[in-house]
Amino acid sequence: MMLTTTRTLTFGDDQSQGADTAWQWITSHTWPDWSIEVMSVTLPRSRSVVSPQGYSKPHLWDPDLPRRAPAACGLQSVTHLTATDDPRTILGRRPGSDLIVVGPRGAGLLKALHLGSTAEWLLHCPNTPLLIARRPVPTQSILVCVDGSAHADAAVGFLASLPWVAGISITVLGVVERDNGLATFVARAAEALTNAGARATSRVLEPDRLDLTVNPHLTIFEHLDTLNPDLVVLGTSGLTGLARLWVGSVASAVARHARCSVLVVRDPHHRDSEGDGDY
Q1: Is residue 229 classed exposed, middle or buried when 0-12, 13-18 and 19+ CB atoms within 10 A define those classes?
Q2: How far is CA 36 from CA 138, 160, 206, 234, in A?
Q3: Three-state secondary structure string covering 138-160
Q4: Alpha-helical regions (H) of 60-205
Q5: CATH class of 141-265
Q6: How far is Cα 263 from Cα 129, in angstroms, rounded to an integer?
Q7: Residue 251's closest CA among 216, 203, 209?
């Protein structure tokens, strides 16, 4: 008998309209063998006041308006947790979480996940994949951006592991900036997603011969406008440019400005040779 491992989705809930959108996105997909922990974080009233013992850590609670998921989602369980602490600490370092999902912005603490320090911290220091849900509908089309880095490979692998990816139309995009065999990485990513049941196609773009460089920001946004996908997927950092540039800035720009949902993934086992943190 084959044993299955339950995976955990952590939903950052501040009871805002953005959080409602994120919850609708979650419940519009199927999640067999997944559990959800609904995490509500309250910032201490004063940084000089120590929270009651144990209350700085997530603990079970019974909210007045609990989040409910339809049976069709196939979830193993939905658990509500609350904590009094810095939301970056709670959401960014949740042990055992396989995916963090948040709304684009809200009236409460998680509004920072659109324009503030919490979003930047989660984007730049994520050992857990982060999805910012902007559309409350099932995912039908995806744009995956790859650059040959370990982080892009991790993003492709994570996407392929999601239980609802089969049958979805996916475009794998690579932008050639130097002779680094990117076409091979793009083909490999498309093959992995096809093996997962998706309808994947690849697209490799080369700069004009008169151009010395290519701008990945503009290229990605042009394809977002043209394809209008439900979700864009990319690694949080990687190799780009004629010298070496962090793609963290690309992920941040896409997370801030894309009209669709955004999934960013970093390979937690890979340490880049030139150091971490220069985003």
Answers
A1: buried
A2: 18, 20, 42, 23
A3: CCCEEEEEECCCHHHHHHHHHHH
A4: 87-92, 112-115, 117-124, 150-161, 182-195
A5: alpha beta
A6: 7
A7: 216
pLDDT given for residue 177 in this prediction: 67
- Per-residue pLDDT tens for 90-101? 887 788 899 999
Structure tokens at 165: 């990816």
Among the listed residues 235, 221, 230, 229, the one whose alpha carbon sits nearest the alpha carbon of residue 264: 235
| Dihedrals phi, psi of 135, to nearest 5 degrees | -125, 125
Strands 261-265 and 130-132 come out as: antiparallel
Q: Where are the alpha helices (DSSP H) in 84-127?
A: 87-92, 112-115, 117-124
- Average pLDDT estimate for 187-204: 96
Determine which of 4-18, 19-33, 150-164, 236-250 has the lowest per-residue pLDDT on average. Answer: 236-250
Would you state the structure tokens that stand for residue 183, as one six-digit string? 């076409």
Residues 43-92 have pLDDT tens digits of 776 555 444 444 578 899 999 999 999 999 999 999 999 998 877 778 87
**Burial (CB count within 10 angstroms: exposed 0-12, middle 13-18, buried 19+), residue 73:** middle
